[in-house]
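ERR on first pass: missing label on line 2. Operator R.T. fixed the label and resubmitted. Corrected input:
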Amino acid sequence: MSIDLKTIKHISKLSRISVAEKKAEKLEGDLNSIFEFIEKLNELKTENVEPLTSIAETTLKLRPDEVKSKNLREQVIKNSPKENEDYFVVPKVIE
Amino acid sequence: MSDITEQSLSELVENIKSKKLSSSEATNAFVQRSEKSKELNAYITEDYANALIKAKKFDEKPNLNLKLPGIPMAVKDLFCTKDLRTTAGSKILNNFVPTYESTVTQNIWNEGAILMGKLNCDEFAMGSSNETSFFGNVQNPIDKNLVPGGSSGGSSSAVAAQLTPITIGTDTGGSIRQPASFTGTVGLKPTYGSCSRYGIVAFASSLDQAGPMAQNVKDCALLQEVISTYDEKDSTSIDFKRNEYSKELTKDIKGKKIGIPKEYRVDGMPNEIEELWKKGIEYAKDCGAEIIDISLPHTNYALPTYYIVAPAEASSNLARYDGVKYGFRAEGENLIDMYEKTRSEGFGAEVQRRIMIGTYVLSSGYYDAYYLKAQKVRKLIKNDFDEAYKKVDAILTPSTPSSAFKIGEKTNDPVSMYLNDIFTVPVNLAGLPGISIPAGHDAKGYPLGLQIIGKAFDEQNILNIAYAMEEKINFKKNITDWWIK
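pass 2 clean. output:
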């Protein structure tokens, strides 16, 4: 299979990364050579193989549902590029 | 007493404990050497003034029972450090100052160590040469314009050049072991679940592990026993019995069965690597180990599997960088435009490439063909190791298929860059511990490493084998301080 410019545009939209025309052409080449490399997996028959979904073969530990961190408002907002009092500010969404 | 920055971690600890050396003297010596070594570009953020203050405070009331009493240390800039900028080598986190501390670094400070600064790395740990960092290339102290490996390139350069007595890196596909191999240092990637991932900037969550990078195996064991703790803040942290690795370290590996996997003899591998591997086998035999030929039949499928699993997880982890809650924001005409411009200007080319691969393999209609397929092959790779460990206690391989290469040599061909990790990636996919130790030099005089892979949770065993082999190898460091004017 090969990835064309239309697919690049589609992935760029899904990834929320804007891609200019020139960059798209470079990506097309790079991604195709990477996928050519990945296609090697098709040599293997895997119908009867269970997928590995967790590398640590343990069950999740239970813990009491207690609030441990309090009053983090200031910390949460501290690194925001734009804020107003206790709110993150983004471009207008509703007209 | 030899020059302070020449001393290993273990020597520094001993000298501070016996009051032959103060923390201020030690910290000052490493700060001075770091100041003189700016050309290496190993640091992203320096915190020298605070380090000296902390050292002075330590000396006023020294607690000599700690494992790292007053020891200065710089760490990879992927670990969140409270109130000190943490960038992950990315423009998108250029101004990010964490309000909390990673568990691994907290463990280190709890044992008395002092933070000197944050070390350079590939952007979001995605790279094998430190060339994807927003903060520029790092020089390998071995030779000018040589890459230090990656992604923990600032860490490997700083340890090899003795700017810090020891450090920590992170390893998702080889990012501790490959740079250790390129710089003639020791690097341990622990078992998945051994070190907490809490507060480490996430790349691929089912593969990421923190680990020590050191001058020698004993120092590596000491730091591993400090950083490896069960942590309820990381749901994949595993509660198992952890050793006091440095105390239980022994060179007695008589009768240990060491496997040699035939599939690691890859096409086009330089003869020097083959020779090094043969020498390694002889050293292991000299130490009393028994050598057994084994097979890991799916080795060739590890890299293609990795380049589905890792980007898929990365695309999901990096969705959080949207210019709203923290980090860089580019202005846009509307919300979507702001997201797209922020991510396009904030991420570098390699990170964008991997996010897009990951997005594609997880997208509707392709999930089964790529991601599910990769998870199945990952299972086969893990089964290979499980089978091998019925016959052997550990596995010996080269760490990398070549020595360090020149800056710029592989940047235009992503696949040739990815091939660097051919011997290290299977270990991450199977969640196992692996250690790289310096074992020789190539014709150019550049260091080459050997890797010892262990069973899950069997760090002590591979540390012991590395410790025994280290003595037989007797590696000679070959660094001239060319960057100090």
